[in-house]
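Entries read sequence, tokenised fold; example below:

***
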Amino acid sequence: MISSSTVRSPDINMHRHTPIIDSPTAVARVLALIMTTQVDPDSRGLRMLENLDAFDRIGIAESAFVRLVDSCRESVGNELCDHAFLHLDDLELVDAALDGVHDHQHRLLVCRLASCIIMAGGHVSDIEHSIYDRMLLRWGYTRSSVVQAILAARIH
């Protein structure tokens, strides 16, 4: 659950640290953006998140998450679904969502959950693939590192 964990980022002197707190909404916003890209959004992605106890792990109610998905759909519309790749405007939108999550563990959790959402539909669209790749690139992960994290979580 994301609530009181902080990440410290170095200041210019590298001796003092400024805490950065990831809000549950910022974490959920990235997942909501991915759900927005699904051409035929149905309950499979939500069921997948429920089965993974994602809402408790993120610290957001399912109803609040659904409202966030709806809000993303209203603001983005079908623009993302209409593209096979990310346009410059799309990159700004995606990067803004990604930049709201700072903590390494939260980022890895989002990557893991995003991969599950994408796979829940049984087909990965080009835009879902593009956003996921952008997420990995921006945060410095590889598909292999995410798979290792998923496997490690199953062991514990």
Q: What stands out?
A: Residues 21-155 form a domain with the TerB-like fold (CATH 1.10.3680). DSSP finds nine helices and two strands in the chain. Residues 69 and 75 are 10 Å apart (CA to CA). Confidence is low (pLDDT under 50) at residues 1-19.
